[in-house]
Amino acid sequence: MAGGVERVLSLKANYFAEQYGYDITIILTEGKNKPFFYNLSNRIKVINLDINFEELWNCTFLKKILVYLKKQHRYKKLLSKELLNIRPDITISLLRREINFINDIKDGSRKIGEIHINRANYRNFDKSQTNFVKELFSKCWMYNLLGKLKRLDQLVVLTEKDKEAWVELDNVSVIPNPLSFKPVSTSLQTEKRVIAVGRYCHEKGYDLLLRAWTKVQDTCPEWQLVIFGDGDRTEYEKMLASLNIDDRRCVLKGRTSDIQSEYIKSSLAVCSSRFEGFGLSIVEAMSCGLPVVSFDCPWGPRSIISNNEDGILVEKDNPLSLADSLIMLMQDDERRNVMSGNAIRNVQRFDIEQIAHKWKSLFEEVCLCNTR
């Protein structure tokens, strides 16, 4: 488990187990015998069903269908067996493949769905590769999904805008992700360094960020951009060369085990995402005293950043606007320092204590409904 969703899951599970004394079991389908990237409390039980859906990635289209059906049948059988054995009070689905059958498992638990991406981008097709058949399939799939979501006791989304998108549902609650750490220190705002964090993929918009940086490096050549993330950097390394970006002023790095210290060594953070489920890296950066310049993309950044107070929201997919806002803060130390203090204060609403309390209240409400 090494992604943002896994990090949040580990954080919440540890808090519920250690602080509330909850009896927690995490059931996985992938990564049998592999170490966990994030530490888990020894009070948490982990069951790995070893379904290995990742095998589908290497299958042809027809074989993928057959292998999927076989694995899905096995998944339903094994998960049903575990839940009937555990008899939990509450079962939380992250809306992966189990949403197809989770409501039909008669284990006595209340079923909650938790979604970490906005509706428009939830299992969407690449627009450049779509066709009539795929669009029809997508509509049928969504219709079927809505029927399953309506049967949940509650669906949890990350922002109010996400809630508004699920117009067909009346069982939606909003609980944002918690801050994943408490900073040991904060940025002194003395380093001429901008940081971006997230995996190297189309969603994160690093191609747009690099285009913006071509203007930034010409105007503020003393500043450096550093990007941290998983994934293949090859495409973006080629862009550095094609855009004549100085690779000393723009550095592409992999994942780091100590991202907190990297935030603290920076003075600004930037988010160039085309869309965000929430924006955990934005919250992390702000907690370390970094104003964040972000595209106003759906839907996370707007739910976190107070525009022109602790960061700046710019027109989505507009590299020039992104560059102009970065340059403005680079050249205005006083404003950047004020925003830094505001960011530290404003982001406290995402402390794990407050977010965990929201979840605890939801659990109690859902269980109370079950006794009526």
Instruction: Specify the oligomeric state.
Output: single chain
CATH fold label of the largest domain: Rossmann fold
CATH superfamily of the largest domain: Glycogen Phosphorylase B
Query: What structural category arises from helix and sheet content?
Result: alpha/beta
Into which percent range does the helicity of residues fall? 40-55%
Q: How much of the polypeptide forms β-strand, as a percent range? A: 5-15%
Descriptive overview:
The chain has 372 residues and is of the alpha/beta class. The protein has two domains: 195 residues, 3-Layer(aba) Sandwich (Rossmann fold); 158 residues, Rossmann fold (3-Layer(aba) Sandwich), CATH 3.40.50.2000. Helices cover 42% and strands 13% of the residues. The protein is built from twelve helices and twelve strands. The strands form three sheets. The protein has a six-stranded parallel sheet, with helices on both faces. A four-stranded parallel sheet has the order 3-4-5-6, with helices on both faces. Helix 5 packs across helix 10. The longest helix has 26 residues. The two termini are 38 Å apart. The model has no long low-confidence stretch (mean pLDDT 93).
